[in-house]
């Protein structure tokens, strides 16, 4: 008997434990409330539970019910006693009706939901749902009991009050999150609309080092000009090597914070503990090696701009710490308890799919909405191939200034660069220009000086890792006419460059007759060049690596002559 009473007394504690788990395990508030009512029914024999919450207009509505579908209840099938509940919500005083059938406000509702339990009375409990403010809802349940049993109403009332408090805290958190998300989405839509109305006028102060005249880059310039003067957080999206750091610095220069610090941090290069110390600083003695107090990057960039590169690589634990700084503008140093307030404009960058990270739970949704206020997408180089000659000449100019040279590109060399894929984007093009300029002996870089024409360009292997089914390099759109400029030598200037290796003599008829299928053109070219792949490649305007892939694609057997 004693053991039975002990088990019964433990049920409320078990119920509170299960309810707290439910409310903390999902972002679906409707489902969580329905599951809470099921727990009340299962553990405590409470029936016909309901949760009423006020909507934005202040009108009460059923948020969850048990015993019937929520849709039918909202359509009026359930004659729920809203008058009694409104009295509880307006006064904040719980309501207990020991015999609900004798209460005028409840009589009709109890009569309709009478389960036919003879010899038992039905009590009605209703407690307000609130946090620290006025009640914004109510939790109601019914419980049947026998006249012969000794029933203590205070126990159930106390328990339901605790449950209502948990529901109130959870509902308040969901409302705040929804409100913040709606505000951020509204601000983002407003900024996007204003950006679409702006047309960039080149050159733009702060964007001198961001080279490009394509339509894709024009959109980027317009977005930067529109967003830079505001305090909005900016999220730069794009593949690695597209110039996100340059755009971040341009945003800083064009903002009212231009005279304050611009500080950058690569989040992927530091472990979580080191990153926390770098961003927030630490107190003396906070850990081994902390021999003095040190300010973090947030403090150092106060009044200015903080650029967090590779933001998608930070851990889940650190995401929560970063979220607090973005929301409150304050933090504590590592090992300290003093709150530090900062005024920092944040620019983040990533090449990861953050939406997929939010979907699989690796990236916090609330942090995503805080960062993704003004997203700016930087296009890969393959989508703006018309900018390649301009970029190549820009990098060659830098090379000349650094090394005291006066080199220039031939027209054919710029056209060849424009046909390349550049999986590493602008960074790879810069490396290609510097490598070619370093290894070229003359003052004019011709087509045959490029690595891809000498079969020494190893980045072509990235094409096939990205497109495993492809046997040949990706085909780009036809080249746009190459501009002329100081770094582009006129066609006549190419004559002063070292002559390229002469192509093998072929008959007057074109080796790659457009009327022939691709396989026959390959076979014809190989036969005319004595089945030497390098010669056939020059004849067809390909690299030896490309012609090797083409021969494998068409299953052409190499003949030994």
Describe this structure in words.
The chain has 561 residues and is of the alpha/beta class. The protein folds into 4 domains: 2-176, GAF domain (Beta-Lactamase, 2-Layer Sandwich); 198-376, P-loop containing nucleotide triphosphate hydrolases (Rossmann fold, 3-Layer(aba) Sandwich); 380-500, Helicase, Ruva Protein, domain 3 (Orthogonal Bundle), CATH 1.10.8; 503-561, Homeodomain-like (Arc Repressor Mutant, subunit A). The protein is 43% helix and 13% strand. It contains 20 helices and 16 strands. It has helices spanning 2-24, 29-44, 70-74, 82-91, 107-112, 153-196, 215-227, 244-254, 272-280, 297-300, 316-328, 354-360, 365-371, 388-403, 411-418, 425-439, 460-466, 518-528, 533-540, 544-553; strands at residues 47-54, 60-65, 95-97, 120-129, 137-146, 234-237, 262-266, 281-282, 294-295, 305-309, 330-332, 339-341, 345-350, 374-377, 408-409, 444-445. The strands form 5 sheets. The protein has a 5-stranded antiparallel beta sheet. Strands 7-10-13-6-14 form a 5-stranded parallel beta sheet. The chain has a two-stranded antiparallel ribbon with strand order 8-9. Strand 4 and strand 5 (137-146) form a beta hairpin. Helix 1 (2-24) runs antiparallel to helix 2 (29-44) and helix 19 (533-540) crosses helix 20. It is elongated and about 105 Å long. The chain starts with a helix and ends in an 8-residue tail after the last helix. The model is unreliable at 198-202, 464-479 and 491-515 (pLDDT under 50). Residues 210-438 form the Sigma-54 factor interaction domain. Required for activation of most nif operons, which are directly involved in nitrogen fixation. Interacts with sigma-54. Residues 485-496 have a biased composition (Low complexity). Residues 468-515 are annotated as: Disordered.
């Amino acid at each position: 008997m004693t053991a039975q009473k002990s088990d019964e007394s433990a049920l409320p504690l078990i119920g509170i434990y299960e309810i707290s788990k439910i409310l903390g395990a999902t972002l679906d508030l409707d489902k969580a409330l329905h599951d809470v009512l099921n727990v009340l029914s299962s553990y405590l024999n409470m029936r016909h539970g309901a949760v009423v919450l006020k909507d934005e207009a202040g009108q009460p509505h059923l948020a969850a019910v048990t015993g019937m579908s929520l849709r039918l209840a909202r359509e009026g099938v359930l004659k729920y006693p809203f008058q009694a509940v409104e009295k509880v919500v307006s006064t904040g005083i719980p309501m207990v009706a020991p015999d609900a059938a004798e209460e005028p406000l409840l009589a009709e509702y109890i009569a309709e939901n009478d389960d036919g339990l003879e010899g038992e009375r039905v009590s009605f409990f209703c407690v307000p749902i609130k946090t620290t403010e006025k009640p914004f809802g109510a939790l109601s349940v019914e419980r049947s009991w026998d006249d012969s049993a000794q029933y203590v109403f205070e126990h159930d009332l106390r328990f339901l009050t605790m449950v209502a408090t948990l529901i109130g805290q959870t509902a308040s958190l969901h409302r705040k999150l929804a409100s913040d998300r709606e505000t951020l989405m509204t601000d983002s839509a407003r900024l996007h609309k204003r950006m679409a109305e702006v047309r960039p006028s080149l050159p733009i102060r702060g964007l001198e080092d961001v080279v490009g005249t394509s339509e894709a880059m024009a959109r980027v310039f317009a977005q930067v000009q529109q967003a830079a003067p505001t305090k909005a957080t900016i999220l730069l999206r794009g593949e690695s090597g597209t110039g996100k750091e340059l755009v971040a610095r341009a945003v800083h220069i064009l903002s009212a914070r231009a005279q304050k610090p611009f500080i950058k941090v690569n989040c992927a290069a530091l472990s979580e503990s080191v990153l926390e110390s770098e961003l927030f600083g630490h107190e003396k003695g906070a850990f081994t090696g902390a021999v003095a107090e040190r300010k973090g990057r947030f403090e150092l960039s106060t009044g200015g701009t903080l650029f967090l590169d590779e933001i998608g690589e930070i851990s889940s634990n650190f995401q929560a710490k970063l979220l607090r700084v973005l929301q409150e503008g304050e933090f504590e140093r590592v090992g300290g308890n003093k709150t530090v307030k900062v005024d920092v404009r944040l620019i983040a960058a990533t090449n990861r799919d953050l939406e997929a990270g939010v979907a699989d739970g690796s990236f916090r949704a609330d942090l995503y909405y805080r960062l993704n206020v003004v997203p700016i997408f930087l296009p890969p180089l393959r989508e703006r191939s018309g900018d390649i000659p301009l970029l190549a000449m820009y990098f060659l100019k830098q090379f000349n200034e650094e090394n005291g040279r006066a080199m220039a590109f031939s027209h054919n060399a710029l056209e060849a660069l424009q046909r390349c894929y550049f999986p590493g984007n602008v960074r790879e093009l810069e490396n290609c220009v510097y490598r070619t300029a370093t290894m070229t002996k003359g003052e004019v870089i011709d087509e045959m000086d490029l690595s891809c024409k000498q079969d020494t360009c190893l980045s072509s292997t990235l094409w096939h890792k990205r497109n495993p089914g492809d046997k040949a390099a990706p085909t780009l759109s036809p080249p746009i006419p190459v501009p002329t400029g100081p770094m582009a030598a006129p066609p006549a200037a190419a004559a002063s460059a070292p002559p390229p290796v002469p192509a093998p003599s072929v008959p007057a008829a074109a080796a790659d007759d457009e009327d022939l299928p691709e396989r026959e053109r390959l076979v014809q070219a190989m036969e005319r060049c004595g089945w030497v792949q390098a010669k056939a490649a020059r004849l067809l305007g390909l690299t030896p690596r490309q012609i090797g892939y083409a021969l494998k694609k068409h299953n052409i057997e190499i003949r030994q002559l």
